[in-house]
Structure formats: structure tokens, C-alpha cells
Amino acid sequence: MTCTDRSQTDVAHCTFLVDSSLPSTKPTALEPDYIADHKTWESVQCERFLDAGATHFLARLLWVPDWEFIPEQYRRKWGSYCLLRRRRRR
């Protein structure tokens, strides 16, 4: 079973799961960080994704390369979207 909508599916029955991990979002009991749960899940494919909530509006408005001299507060912040596969039980 592939699971993409956590609100409608019991994750315990999923073989695959799509999850996001963004710096501006903290895990909760209702929305855990499955990407960090390496004991249960393995990453099949991950892609960087802009965390708009943690990125200054100027960094979202203007495209500027990630140069080191740009102050940290004005740099883009990145998270991940990952396809996860449940690890086999031993």
C-alpha cells in the first residue's frame, strides 16, 4: 500500500510514504518526522524543496546564488520531500 495522505490512512499499513522535512516545521505527535525515523523507513529518493516559511521574502523574490558573503538571514532555507520505503522486519 502506498500512502500519501496521512489524515486518511493508518501509516502502520503503508509500504511507501511521501514525507516532508522543513526547518520551519517541528515534528509533533500528529505529524512525526518519518524521514528521521531510520529504524522504520529508508529513503528511496529525496529532493530539496524551498522552505518558504523559513526563507526571507527577498530570497524568495530575487534569485541570487548561494554565495557565502550573503548574510545567513537572507539566504534560502531548504527542506526535503522524500519517498520512503518501510524497512523489512527481521
Shape: elongated
Segments where pLDDT lies below 50 for 5+ residues? none
Task: Report the end-to-end length measured between terminal Cα atoms.
Answer: 20 Å
Radius of gyration, in angstroms, nearest whole number: 16 Å
Number of strands: 4
Instruction: Indicate the percent of residues in helices.
Output: under 10%
| Average predicted local confidence, pLDDT | 88
Strand order of the largest sheet: 1-2-4-3
State the order of secondary-structure elements, H for helix, E for strand: EEEHE
Largest sheet, described in full?
4 strands, mixed
Number of distinct helices? 1
Percent of residues in beta strands: 25-35%
The chain-level structural class is mainly beta
Question: Could you characterize what this model shows?
Answer:
This protein is mainly beta and 90 residues long. The protein has a domain at 2-52 and 78-86. Helix content is 6%, strand content 30%. It contains one helix and four strands, in the order βββαβ.
